[in-house]
Amino acid sequence: MRHSDLTTALTDRTAKTFLGILFGAVLIVALLNLLVPAESGLHVSSYTVSLLGKYLCYALLALALDLVWGYCGILSLGHGAFFALGGYAMGMYLMRQIGDRGVYGHPTLPDFMVFLNWEELPWYWHGFDSFGFAMIMVALVPGVLAFVFGWLAFRSRVTGVYLSIITQALTYALMLAFFRNELGFGGNNGLTDFKDILGFSLREDSTRVALLIASAVALGGAFVLSRWITGTRLGRTVMAVRDAESRARFLGYRTEHYKLWIFTLSAVLAGIAGALYVPQVGIINPGEFSPLNSIELVVWVAVGGRATLYGAVIGAILVNYGKTVFTGVMPEAWLFALGGLFVAVTVFLPQGLVGLAQSLLKPKRQPDATDKEADHEPA
Amino acid sequence: MSLRDTFRRDQVFGPLRPGTRPVRPGQLDTGGKHILYMEDITVSFDGFKALNDLTLYIEPGELRCIIGPNGAGKSTMMDVITGKTRPDTGSCFFGQTLDLTRMSETEIATAGIGRKFQKPTVFPEHTALENLELAMAGPKGTWQALLQPVTGQQYDWMAQTLETVGLLAQKNQLAGALSHGQKQWLEIAMVLMQKPRLLLVDEPIAGMTRQEVERTAELLQSLAGEHSVMVVEHDMEFIRSIANTVTVLHQGSVLAEGRMQDVQNDPKVIEVYLGETG
Amino acid sequence: MPRVLLLIFMLLGVAGTALAQTSAAPTDDAGQTTMASPDGEGRPSESVAPGVSKEEALRTSLAKFKSRDFDVKAEAIETIARSGHERGEALLQALLDRELLHDLAGDRIVLGEQADGGWALRDPISEEDVGRAEARAARPVIINNRLRQQIRDLKSVTALANPNPLNRREAARRLVGNTDPVVLDALRARQAEEANPLVKGVIDTALNIAVLRDPASHLNERLNAIDAVAGSLEPAVRNVLRDRLAQSDAAAERNAAERALSKIDQRTERYETADTLFFGLSLGSVLLLAAIGLAITFGVMGVINMAHGELIMLGAYTTFVVQQIFPDGHEWSLLVALPAAFLVSALVGIVIERGVIRFLYGRPLETLLATFGVSLILQQAVRVIFSPLNRSVVTPEWMSGALEINPIFSLTYNRLYIIVFALIVFFALQLVLKKTRLGLQVRAVSQNRGTARAMGIRSERVNALTFGLGSGIAGIAGVALAQLTNVGPNLGQAYIIDSFMVVVFGGVGNLWGTLTAAFSLGIANKIIEPMAGAVLAKIMVLVFIILFIQRKPRGLFPQRGRAAEE
Known about the structure:
Chain A has helices at 6-11, 13-34, 46-71, 79-98, 111-115, 131-155, 160-179, 205-230, 233-243, 245-250, 255-281, 291-304, 310-329, 331-348, 352-360, 365-374, and strands at residues 191-192, 196-197, 200-201, 283-284. Chain A is mainly α. Chain A has one domain (6-292). In chain A, strand 2 (196-197) and strand 3 form a beta hairpin. Chain A starts with 5 loop residues before the first helix and ends in a 5-residue tail after the last helix. In chain B, strand 7 (198-202), helix 8 and strand 8 (228-232) form a beta-alpha-beta unit. In chain C, the strands form two sheets. A five-stranded antiparallel β-sheet of chain C has the order 4-3-2-1-5. In chain C, strands 6-7 form a two-stranded antiparallel ribbon. In chain C, helix 20 (511-532) crosses helix 21 (534-551). Chain C is α+β, with helices and mostly antiparallel strands. Chain C has three domains: 54-146, no CATH class; 160-249, no CATH class; 274-493, no CATH class. Chains in contact: A-B, A-C, B-C. The interface between A and C is large, with 42 and 40 residues.
């Protein structure tokens, strides 16, 4: 009986491979950007650095969704909302950092508030000048929203497509709300024109590389954490809830608590992904709440393969790379490709690319089984 | 005193002997004559009465068989006991104090009622061993599940239970890959891991071979005494081989109750049930 | 449930009575038409001296427009209006439209249109072509606001004699609040001969306001006038009463004005409620149309069709294409568009079912994702074929305009038709499901697939047809929506979440639930809107549904019993 702790989660083969590839790639890109002169053919542009950073944030978001969808069977069509909320929390910090360097030069009010003739900072903007406070909010706001929403939904046993539809309604409602100027988050335009983070200019190559590394650390950390959790009885219970919820209930599990736990954790991870995403793309606007974003995210996980964690990461990176390539070469074709991907994956590849690879390299199961047997000693 | 003994969980939460257990201490009071009291229970779906003034008592340690034609209300009765369905009227008590109509499925399971479903429900993506781990009596909170690993004793206990149902060799097989009969056994093993005071067993032998049926009969009989067992089954042969007391349900209420021979000769029963099947 | 249904019927009843009242008005008036004097002779023509040719008089009047003096022009307008000449009205309109020119070269007043950087000139009376003028060689006759008002008033006075009572009422309404003695004379003259009570009522109001505006009127006259106008919803009445309340020296008059105002306020409030309900009902019928196809595919078949919105969009585009094919057929092309849209969407739906969904039965979440993919493809296809820009569909004449019930309450025809249309579609669908063989098979398959198949129902075919039916209704909804909004690739997206909300709120698998949910959500939206704004109203409704589903996960009218447990 395997009950992993953090050390085993860090040192098992999958984790080593994953972390090795992740940090190896990031390190190479960082060095090629910082040390190789721009004229050299080997130089990696800052644009690529930020692009890769963006992919890693998407990968973290996909990982978060995989925790709830792959492991717990909750198809959230509103995870983009948690991502966006984390992003807005970070965006508010970055806005406050602009200080009096805005177009209107107001010492505390962001430009859009001056434009709207606001007299003073709304109460919920206070504290965001502190990085620490903002980082707490990055985790807290999505976490609390997920907790409250999940508590209501799981307690009354809203499941399956009903749950998917109301999560979609949630992000839709938030999108409409954030489009309003009165809400105080910049309305349509969102938050943008950021200058620096922790005193480092966002235009500097070194800052971009640092953000890339931070994204990689966050992704790696989330991966190890998720590996650990899914290897414990908590993880197995969550999967049991996915496969046979009423059975789990009749065994004495309060399944709603388990769902709530994993849903909240997932929302926090999504929020962190959003927070890392915003300084790298330089803007956060209500479009991030759009239901389309959340559902596109689902297809990343589906393409990679559910309930493997690394499948979600692979899927997110592949699909987004495809999107970058497609939208550059033939923009009209991208939505056809994405739509086709949805259909193809669900109809032909329900286990995703990872499942495909596993079925091609079939004799994999046996060694695993002996591993588990050897692990039965209490930890 | 070894370190491991100091951190033993089983002394607090783990395997406890019947009679000393209640999971919610002080709540299950078996002082009365019966362990389960169902009185005047009515359940209706859109006007159709699935249960109609059903009254039924189970004694501690009893092995009770429930028979009845399709639609007699057997499954609905189990749903009521386990909290899946709320009765429109009537009362349902577990021991002297636990009102099952007010408890959630989870609370009822924790209080000591285990259920094996008609269609075997195991966790297909988990191994047989993991299935038992999930079923094992003990704290079921999220944080405990995250932080408490399985102890050696608990592992031994699981292995022992798997051996009892003959699945030790399959302990690392995914439950979804087991045969239908094996799934039935696995589910029974899971219910046993709950250490229930009352077992509800819905059609345990469907899909089993003759030998498996015999072993099931033995197992159920060995469980009685320590646990109260309620078995719903269609197979008259099987019932005859294990039953002391039989209750016949018909149209949502009790038609007859008594020893197998008496019930079999009851003209009412012959008419509605035995008569039909020959 | 019965209470909610009752509510709906009451609401429908309100709309129904309103309809009945107003549709009664024209028929009532049709009888009056014969009594009204025939065209021409009834018009005031006393100023034209016998023997003088009407045309000559008209030309003399027209010549006065060469003057720069607005008083001279005012006189000319007056005489043209009273000339009784058939061109009179058209000439005044031309004056308003800046099409009456002073041709400087020929020193004459002509009609002119801009052409090739100059003017194409026509004779004002015979409308014959009288040559061209350079851009600078002619200039439009200048009028000011006072003259414009005068022309409008005169046109209204003329229209007071129109044989159609609706036009007469319209004309009289335009004159309400007017204190010009000429206008008042005309109104008094008309009051004496007017037989239609509705028109007469408006004229009375106008004259009573004149009394109240007249500083020379007696207190008793004014009190009578206030009594007479109390309850009238004309904005001018409210204004004059407010003025009297503020300016009058007589306490009796102030009291009377105050009472009258509060009576008006009460009536206004009542009609505003009715207005909200009407808008709510019309929004509800849009929701109903959008959701009802979904209720079939989701409710009856358990299939989540995220491409439903795009099937609606296809219906809307079909309407657009049909109009392109029949550019002159705006009045009737809808009749072609309806079946065409049904067929197009139904066919696409069947293709989706056969091509994708049939592999995914029993896996609702996967169906959701796959159909979402289909929706992206359909959207993009439309963008490529029709461009990403919005297209607009011409609304037929008989659907534009409004049924005016009183000055503050009118029912726009397009919304009225949509309500009726949505209900027709709803009941037709009920009929199909209840009375036809397909309906029976659909219900059988939805209740128990295995048994239905055992009884010889080809469930494959039934699935395809059911899906086609649901999709076809989406297409029909698209035709209706095309009359209300622009047709664009995102049309469907705007409705998909709302449609799901309606189905989920009403209870899956229950068409009556869908109806109730659509109308209650529509009305709720419109009730909240004035208080909180459109966006906030929508957010509040969404939040409400999210909370509602927590309390009643199976919607307003849940299916009960064993089947629902699975």
